[in-house]
Structure formats: structure tokens, C-alpha cells
Amino acid sequence: MNFTPLNDRILVKRTDSIEMSAGGIIIPDTAKEKPLEALIVAVGAGKLLKNGSRRSPTLKVGERVLFGKYGGDEIQLDGEDHLILREDEILAVIDN
Questions:
Q1: Which pLDDT does position 69 carry in this prediction?
Q2: What is the rounded end-to-end Cα distance, in angstroms, of the chain?
Q3: Would you call 14 helix, strand, or coil by DSSP?
Q4: How far apart are the C-alpha atoms of 52 and 32, rounded to whole Å?
Q5: What is the reported pLDDT for 51?
Q6: Grouped pLDDT means (10 residues each) for the chain, 96 residues
Q7: Is 79 helix (H, G, I), strand (E, B) or coil?
Q8: Domains in the chain, please, with CATH?
Q9: 57, 85 contact by CB (below 8 A)
Q10: For residue 90, which of 32, 4, 6, 8 has the smallest C-alpha distance?
């Protein structure tokens, strides 16, 4: 499916979380914290400013980012969970 976020929105896919604790106890899905790290899948055209111009996005597809625990809107694309975030909800870019 082709998906293009609008304006300053960014489509991300969460990275996989660890399924076992450090002590070897398997953590059920219902008790897992959702990871706050994700991979950028698609980026919108940028924020539309009051004067009608557009501020280009600073983030790029393929970057790994951190976001707030309650940020974004969850959606499913092709049977996989994704989040749509605004650019200002991204807290940091993780260097590879």
C-alpha cells in the first residue's frame, strides 16, 4: 500500500521489543511496554506556515527516532502496526 503523510506528519514503525526479561522470564504481550523507538517509513511535505509557505521536514525516511510514550496515532497498514506522529513529537534521532 502506498501511504503519504500530510503536512508535518511522519509515518513510523516501532522497532521490535525484547520478549524476555534479564532474568529469563518471558513477558506476555499484555505486560510489555511499547517501545519508544521507531524507524521512519514516510515523511510529509512539511509544516504549512501562516504566510502560506511550507517549512521542509528535517527528518528523512530510514532514520531511527525516539518519541514520547503517548505520542502519535496508531494505524495498521498491510497488517502491521504503525504510528503517525507530528514532527514536533519526535524527541531525538538515533545515530547508527
A1: 86
A2: 28
A3: strand
A4: 43
A5: 96
A6: 89 73 63 76 94 94 92 91 94 87
A7: coil
A8: 9-94 (2.30.33.40)
A9: no
A10: 8
pLDDT, residue 82, reads 94
Question: Per residue in 27-42, is it b (16+ CB within 10 Å) or e — as a string?
Answer: eeeeeeeeeeebebbb
Supply 80's cell numbers.
Answer: 502491521
Task: For residue 84, count other CB atoms closer than 10 A to its CB.
Answer: 19
Give the closest residue to 91 by CA, choosing from 62, 60, 61, 69: 69
Torsions phi, psi of 84, nearest 5? Answer: -110, 120
Which amino acid does the sequence have at 3? F
Q: Position of cell 524527541?
A: 91
Encoded amino acid at 11, one letter:
L
CA distance 27 to 40: 27
DSSP at 32: P
Residues 36 and 66: beta-carbon distance below 8 Å: yes
Q: What is the C-alpha to C-alpha distance for residues 12 and 91, in angstroms, rounded to an integer?
A: 13
Alpha carbon distance 53, 60 (integer Å): 20
